[in-house]
Amino acid sequence: MQIFVFLGAPGAGKGTAAAGIAQKTAALHISTGAMLREALKKGTPAGLAAKSYMDKGALVPDQVLVDMIGELLAAADPDSVFLFDGFPRNESQAVQLDKLAEQFNANVKAAICLDVPEATLLKRLGGRRVCPVCGAGYHVESLPPKREGICDVCGVPLATRADDKPETIRHRLEVYGEQTAPLIAWYEKTGKLRRVDGSGEADATVEKVLSAMNG
Ligand code: AP5
């Protein structure tokens, strides 16, 4: 099993890049944010426990995430290649990931960090729209649906993510700076860090990430 960790601030394009790579390769895109939102939609205990943290833009307690990732790896095919979008999010989760990787004979191959200026992050998060049914992501300017405000796949009205309100975005960026950005230095020390300029168009970023993964 191989694991690629995607680092980057909210709006850096982790989800968009990971989804693009999953379309072109056999790798599996695993978004812990999407898993938590799905758990909340289903009303599971983990989803309900996560809600108040997600609404504020705070990190959900580590053990909830470590248990989710542990269950995923325990059930995975040994040949799987995972793109972890949003996990780990702090040093404690990174240590736990290394332990899980050892337990399930997986290898954390590289940590890909998408670098994007803050003004671009704010523009991306402010214009993001999502389909409440299939989860497809759009952007009002850079990735608009064919019919304004309507999902191309499901035909239902698009929604704004609950944590994309301006005040919650600000808090998410602070949490990223305090708790997640230190992982950049953490992975640099292990020799696994690959930095990628994520400020260009989505297709170009996918190509750059693919070559960083292979480099
Ligand atoms: P999560 O869903 O992971 O949110 P995030 O990290 O804040 O990241 P985003 O999804 O906002 O951004 P992204 O980098 O994926 O950008 P995207 O590709 O969508 O987590 C949500 C919450 O869940 C957290 O706040 C926390 O509470 C909880 N959580 C999750 N994991 C956790 C963990 N491990 N531990 C604890 N708590 C956890 O792009 C954004 C927009 O920009 C889109 O509209 C897109 O179309 C557009 N766009 C993307 N790339 C480009 C591009 N290259 N050019 C133009 N537009 C682009």
Report what the structure shows:
By secondary structure, the protein is of the alpha/beta class. Helix content is 49%, strand content 16%. The protein is built from 9 helices and 7 strands. The protein has a 5-stranded parallel β-sheet, with helices on both faces. Strand 5 and strand 6 form a beta hairpin. The radius of gyration is 17 Å and the shape is globular. The protein starts with a strand and ends with a helix. The mean pLDDT is 96. Bound molecules: BIS(adenosine)-5'-pentaphosphate. The site of BIS(adenosine)-5'-pentaphosphate has 36 residues, from helix 1, helix 2, helix 3, strand 6 and helix 9.
Give the termini separation.
18 Å
Kindly state the mean pLDDT as a whole number?
Answer: 96
CA radius of gyration: 17 Å
Q: Quote the beta fraction.
A: 15-25%
Quick take:
By secondary structure, the protein is an alpha/beta fold. Helix content is 49%, strand content 16%.
